[in-house]
Amino acid sequence: MFPVNDQTTSWEFCDLSGQKRKFLPQDVPVHTRSMDLQRNKLKRVTGISRFPFLVQLNLSRNKIMEFPHELINLQKLEELYLNQNNIRHIPEGIFPNLRRLKFLKLSTNRLTKLPSDINQGTCITYLDLSKNCLKDIQPLVGLTKLKELFVKKNELTELPSQLFHNGTCELTVCKAMGNPLRCPPEEVCAGGVMDIQSYFQHMDENPNTRSAWTVKTMFLGCSMAGKSTLCRSLREGKPVAIAVEDRTEGIEISQLYAEGIRFLFWDFAGQEEYYLTHHVFITPRALVILTVDLASYSIVDPQSFNDQLWFWINNIQLRVPDSVVLLVGTHCDQCTDQEEVMEKKKDIEEKVNSRLANRRTVLKQQKRNLEENANPSLFTDQLDELDCLLEYNLKVLDLITIDCTKMEDIGKLRSHVLTCIQSESVFLCSGCILPKSYETVSQAIHTLVALQKIPQHGIIQLEELRDLILNHVKLSSESLKTILQSLLRYLHRIGVIIWYEDISVLSDRVFIQPSFLISMFKTIVRHDLVQQLEGVSRDLLMQEGALVKEKFTWVDDLRCRGTLHNAAMRILVRRAIEKLIKDDDDLVEEVVGTKREEGIILTLLQHFEVCLPTLVGGGLNPHAPVFTPSEKQWKSASEAKRDPNGACLFPIYLQDELIVCQKWGENRQDDLSVHVYFLPEIPHGFFHRVIVKTCSLYQTHWVGREQCLLCCGNRLCLVRQKKRDEDPFIEIRCRRPEKDEEFRQLWDLILAVISKLFVLSRQWPGLTQQIHTPCPETGCPHYFTWRDWQELNNADFYNLVKGEKLVCKGGHTRRTELLFPKDKHMSL
Ligand SMILES: Nc1nc2c(ncn2[C@@H]2O[C@H](COP(=O)(O)OP(=O)(O)OP(=O)(O)O)[C@@H](O)[C@H]2O)c(=O)[nH]1
């Protein structure tokens, strides 16, 4: 929507949006400067040259097939929206005439090629070409004022290096995800313009044409399905039996080189407790091998399909919706005969295909419902979002059946995986070209590991790593510095190393062996943590200066309250780590932490929102200084008071909701309640992180497994996960305030919680929100986008609470529904 200021008179701004028009209207004044024609049914734009004073023109969401040639007459045009049409071709000769054009949005069309003279639109600063079919954007070279470039989801294999030349480039934003990029690889582009520039600079200095190929392969599936067996057998090239007691805890990583491809195998444990870490490690652009035990799979029991397959496919679809999933059925030897194997294969494939197709049908139906609504303009964001979900294409390949104990079957699977990877139509992630210098440095790191110059645990200071590499390569210290930074970023993104550049206390340290870090994670995030704690010996307790009776308290607190004392955590991590790190007390201390300082592991667990430091509060405190209404940045209230020798709350280990229920009491009829719906469902682990995120804002909170209660001033706010008619939503429920100032606090509180929900939900790209849920009390839905929320002011909020309908147009992504009983007015 155009920004219209109050001074704009009607002849200057002409809103013709959403009127199902097939032609331009005749009665618009020729002096019109801004025309909004979005969401009509225009196929051609004939007659637009009658408005030579147009500065802004919005033709988005029409049915335009040809780029309107007449636009060459709009010489004052500065902003042009042509997104969401069907344009296949832009003729030559347009852009030399649009000398004032600054903003051009052409996303979601069918362009395969750009006109060679597009670079004569020399004023263009913003250009969106995402979601087309472009193979080449070389014609953009010469757009010297370009600041923001979007070319997501095209068919680009290269970006033109000239666009990024240091001296001339004004680009500040370049988004190129979703292209089969080789030069620079997508992982370099993800780092933004600076990383791309650095890449091209090194390519200039050390050109390379050879393609390096690394494929992250993730093994997912239920516990005991055979993931570790598959992973290790593939690596060894022969069947490897895994003893039952040798189950995967957390994640294991290993490598395999085959036919010039480096596979990084990530073997994820199947038990529920580990799902909590999956958001950290399940990343896009990987091959997923979903393993199912065919012997235990039941055709007749629908739960079997749900648990063993659909749960995983659904999770993958929510988290990495563009992935390729290879289904592997193990334990064939334990099925009665080949016939049973084939029946199960057929059943699984049919059910997967029908569920995937069904999901699409539901999405399409939802889209139709919105389009047919009396006022579809209220739903444009929802429609966009549904379009995005429809565009994702999770590829689930046919199931391959194997007996992991048979040599022949392991060979069959290995060549099948290679074929899948090499067939680019199936697997987007192909080889990528790196500057020679990157390869040299990468190789040097590899050699240093092999020569054991880098300790086995792989934790190394950045500077120390640089010094070691300098002894191995012919590079100046200065150029190594820049190469190393970009290279480490790249290696981190493809999953070879871990470097948390953004966590200030960890930014000077590199984890050359990710498996080390993960094994630290799994000492804490594990299904048998209580037993592990019970097994702590007297010697270990003494080392930490703790008494045996403290151990009983720890066990009790973990079991009943989901709280792990930091002292207990230190003991557990130290016990695990001392097996890996020998004779390096300083490092052990750094990882484990001390009574005065948090260690690496605790920092990471909090960074990834697995736990939060507890400051278990007392009763309601009317003077609690936690909230500062209208403060832009939400600081963690407990941060300053965090005690490294305190305890951490792990919502995953909580058993019940008792404490929350007790404190909250009964729902009241006049409670304020905001619902945030999610479609298709709330992912596993999502709510635990909501709890961690929201509770970290408050000093006083009580937490249950699927609920948490926050205290703001003397107001209570309940956040909980619920379902209505199978539709999952998160409810934020507050006691109705009495005083004005409390009311404002409450508004900020709701806003803070919702903002956390939105930030979090962005990490699941396959997730959107429920659309049709009218308010049961008033019958009229109030739909809000996140941007609407931010833009609402207190006065709007008062009106809402009074039951007045407030309509917000525009906005971005997900919508929220306000449900305030209409008859309960606030006295303000
Ligand atoms: N007979 C037979 N046994 C298999 C086959 N595949 C796996 N197994 C056995 O099944 C058991 C479980 O296999 P794992 O590879 O540990 O299973 P997982 O999926 O990694 O399990 P978690 O680590 O708990 O997530 C092991 O004892 C394997 O040796 C198979 O095809 N045939």
UniProtKB/TrEMBL annotation:
Database matches in InterPro entries: Leu-rich_rpt, Leu-rich_rpt_typical-subtyp, LRR_dom_sf, P-loop_NTPase, ROC, WH-like_DNA-bd_sf
Domain Roc: 208-424
Alphabetized PROSITE patterns for the sequence: LRR (PS51450), ROC (PS51424)
UniProt entry keywords in alphabetical sequence: Leucine-rich repeat, Nucleotide-binding, Repeat
Gene3D superfamilies: P-loop containing nucleotide triphosphate hydrolases, Ribonuclease Inhibitor, Winged helix-like DNA-binding domain superfamily/Winged helix DNA-binding domain
A GO molecular-function descriptor: nucleotide binding
Recorded superkingdom: Eukaryota
Record-level GO BP terms: regulation of signal transduction
One Pfam family, short name: Roc
Keyword Repeat listed: yes
Protein name: Malignant fibrous histiocytoma-amplified sequence 1 homolog
